[in-house]
């Protein structure tokens, strides 16, 4: 998916509302509690600006971090890909502020040292990777210890099925992918890399989440030209002892069987989901993360969780399974803590056609800073349309810091922002990642 390809929507203002959140009991056996939480829905407006072009290849969430007084970003793709070709575009640029870094010419980007792909059938890194979030180890005062949360794509050719481990994919009834040629669909996974030198070199630490072969959605039902299944397009934020992962779920919520396939069941298990891992387990992550299962973070890292219900598109409103050629789901979350609003903000896209077609961007809010308490991680408001560009395909929306004294002093990144932020997104049909608007929030 990542290797493929109206005018301004009127300013959106939303009034106040009372958000009711049903919280799960903190201790098993206690009666479930329902509490009323006063939450004034933020208002916001889009301020049109001159077009700000990002000067390099972007096909993912923008991973960035401050290392001392240097802002560093890590766009691009790296690794083996039998459909699109081997890529060495995962590079970094540095600068003293966001505008300087985002304006860096492509020729000035630096290629970090990345782990090589392991031979087929052997343990190690397989397929291509994109860095989508960088977590900075708070215990390292130098700021040079970083963990990159990466999106990883494989095919039956790069990761053939291993009966002993259950990993990998069987090349039978495999669905078609994005290209106009007859090529296979990819499967996405999410992993972790570590750097101790500020991003100049990286070591692969293992997988964060994956869906295995039994959950792949195959022919004749998967005709979307998206994924065969899997988890991907992540955004991660740290809260307390945990790193919370927001990701797209594209697999079947059970064992896929062509004879008993149910599109409504597929839809029920897909959209934007949440998992978490203890920060002190990032050095050896595989098998440690837990997915939200409807009651808590109880499902295994490779098990079946439940998506955030409020972010799903109802079937009666056009929602549908990811394997459908008509789509109908939100995807590509980019989550940030807003210091002005004192709430979480999530940007997302919308798929409404084959090959990830969709011309709208959406926004949602969550008032709970402590995502680990009760149902707090699930308490996202119904997505509201932020922008529409008829005739275009919009991917990877994110809010980014501005070149202001306040944003620089606070060392804002796409994970932490203030009253104003620059909206970036990719015109996939044009192959351009750019900004045409600033988003301004009001309490």
TrEMBL record:
UniProt keywords (A-Z) are: Signal
Task: Give the signal peptide range.
Answer: 1-21
What SUPFAM superfamilies does the annotation carry? Sialidases
Q: Which branch of life, at top level?
A: Bacteria
Record-given protein name: DUF4185 domain-containing protein
Organism of origin: Aquiflexum gelatinilyticum
């Amino acid at each position: 998916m990542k290797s493929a390809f109206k005018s301004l929507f009127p300013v959106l203002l939303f009034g106040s509302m009372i958000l009711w959140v049903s919280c799960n009991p903190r201790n098993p056996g206690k009666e479930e509690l329902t509490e009323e939480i006063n939450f004034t829905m933020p208002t916001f407006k889009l301020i049109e600006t001159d077009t700000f072009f990002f000067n390099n290849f972007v096909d993912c969430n923008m991973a960035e971090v401050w290392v001392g007084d240097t802002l560093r970003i890590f766009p691009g793709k790296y690794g083996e890909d039998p459909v699109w070709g081997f890529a060495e575009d995962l590079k970094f640029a540095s600068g003293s502020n966001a505008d300087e870094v985002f304006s860096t010419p492509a020729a000035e980007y630096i290629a970090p040292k990345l782990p090589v792909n392991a031979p087929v059938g052997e343990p190690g890194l397989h397929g291509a990777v994109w860095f989508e979030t960088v977590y900075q180890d708070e215990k390292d005062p130098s700021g040079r210890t970083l963990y990159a949360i990466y999106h990883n794509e494989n095919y039956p050719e790069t990761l053939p099925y291993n009966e002993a481990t259950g990993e990998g994919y069987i090349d039978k009834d495999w669905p078609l992918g994005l290209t106009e040629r007859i090529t296979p669909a990819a499967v996405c996974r999410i992993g972790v890399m570590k750097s101790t030198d500020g991003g100049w070199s990286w070591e692969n630490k293992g997988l964060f989440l994956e869906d295995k072969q039994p959950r792949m959605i195959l022919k004749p039902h998967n005709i979307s030209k998206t994924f065969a299944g899997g988890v991907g397009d992540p955004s991660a934020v740290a809260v307390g002892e945990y790193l919370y992962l927001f990701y797209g779920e594209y697999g079947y919520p059970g064992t896929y069987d062509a004879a008993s396939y149910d599109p409504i069941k597929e839809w029920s298990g897909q959209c934007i989901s949440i998992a978490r891992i203890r920060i002190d387990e990032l050095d050896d992550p595989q098998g440690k993360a837990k997915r939200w299962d409807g009651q808590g973070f109880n499902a295994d890292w490779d098990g079946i969780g439940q998506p955030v219900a409020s972010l799903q598109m109802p079937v009666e409103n056009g929602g549908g399974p990811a394997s459908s050629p008509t789509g109908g789901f939100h995807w590509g979350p980019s989550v940030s803590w807003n210091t002005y609003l004192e709430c979480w903000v999530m940007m997302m896209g919308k798929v409404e056609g084959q090959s990830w077609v969709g011309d709208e961007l959406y926004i949602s809010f969550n008032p709970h800073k402590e995502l680990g308490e009760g149902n707090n991680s699930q308490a996202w408001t119904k997505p509201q349309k932020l922008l529409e560009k008829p005739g275009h395909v919009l991917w990877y929306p994110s809010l980014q810091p501005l070149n202001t004294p306040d944003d620089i002093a606070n060392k804002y990144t796409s994970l932490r922002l203030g009253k104003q932020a620059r909206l970036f997104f990719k015109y996939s049909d044009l192959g351009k990642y750019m900004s045409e608007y600033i988003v301004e929030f009001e309490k």
